[in-house]
Write a structure and sequence with these properties.
With 278 residues, the chain is an alpha/beta fold. It has 10 helices and 11 strands. The chain has helices at 35-42, 60-66, 80-88, 115-118, 193-198, 205-214, 219-231, 235-244, 253-268, 272-277; strands at 22-28, 48-53, 70-73, 95-98, 103-105, 125-132, 144-153, 158-161, 167-170, 175-176, 179-188. An 8-stranded mixed beta sheet has the order 3-2-1-4-7-6-11-5, with helices on both faces.
Length: 278
């Protein structure tokens, strides 16, 4: 059992925003723990909620329909980006919001989205702040934070790539989307012991290793493999993959984050001089 994080105003949500043209797109499997609350919060800013179920054996689909979502059933394609891109095909609004079934919007930050922000011509996407909880108590002082694109313009050339930890790109250039940041918070419970164990996320290691084997030059694949190894308690193995990411584009936050994570792992294995150097 996991509970929504404290001080997240779960009983009182802002008024539904009619001025925003946003479709929520989700891919889910066995997410009955938080799916109803996830959709309840998303409904404040979304005029359409799309849930692609890839084979749930619990009440996920029923709960999603009861919350007002359009539920579509597709067999798991064996590829997270392929599944994510299937969900995008059902979107009808100008903007697409991405959430997972183990994530909740923090209501107090939703008002950071304004119509004038979405009308800006210099951005195709908006980064949110992701709060990754690592304990079932969902303590902010134990979480780690990152910025990530979660809202983007609905365009045929905006699609996901990558086997497991997918990256949103402009398929015309293979480059990440132009983005701006707004301090909207997404509370992510997927790394908590309760969810990690129930979803058997440790089994994803083989998929990440396969992704690296198929594309050894992809630093983003190595970064996600390193994250997984760190979570599984193998900082030594994670360190070597993080270090390869140092050659990446420093304008990308995941590249900058690789330095912090590498320093942490170096410290964990007793390589203190290396940690300081990094």
């Amino acid at each position: 059992t996991i509970e929504p994080a404290p001080n997240t105003s779960i009983d009182t949500l802002p008024t539904h925003r009619e001025d925003l043209s946003i479709s929520l797109c989700m891919i889910v499997k066995n997410e009955s723990r938080l799916i109803a609350e996830c959709l309840r919060r998303a409904s404040v800013i979304c005029n359409q909620m799309v849930v692609v179920d890839t084979g749930s054996e619990d009440e996920t689909a029923t709960l999603a329909e009861a919350a007002g979502a359009e539920v579509y059933h597709h067999p798991w394609p064996g590829h997270f980006s392929a599944a994510r891109n299937i969900s995008l095909e059902y979107a009808r609004n100008d903007w697409i919001l991405i959430l997972d079934g183990d994530e909740l919007l923090e209501p107090g930050t939703i008002d950071q989205l304004e119509e004038r922000i979405l009308e800006r011509a210099d951005a195709d996407a908006i980064e949110f702040e992701i709060v990754n909880f690592v304990s079932d108590e969902a303590r902010f002082d134990q979480a780690y934070f990152q910025k990530q694109i979660r809202l983007f313009r609905r365009e045929a050339h905006h699609r996901y790539e990558g086997l497991i930890h997918n990256q949103l790109v402009d398929t015309r250039t293979s480059r990440p989307l132009r983005s701006i940041y707004r301090p909207v918070r997404v509370l992510h419970y997927g790394y908590t012991p309760a969810v990690w164990g129930a979803q058997n996320k440790a089994a994803r290691l083989s998929m990440l290793e396969k992704a690296v084997a198929e594309d050894p030059d992809s630093l983003f694949c190595r970064y996600n493999l390193a994250n997984h190894l760190k979570i599984l308690g193998d900082p030594g193995a994670a360190l070597s993959h993080y270090q390869l990411c140092f050659a990446g584009d420093l304008t990308q936050e995941w590249v900058r984050f690789s330095f912090f994570s590498a320093a942490f792992c170096a410290n964990e294995v007793g390589r203190h001089d290396l940690a300081i150097e990094i």
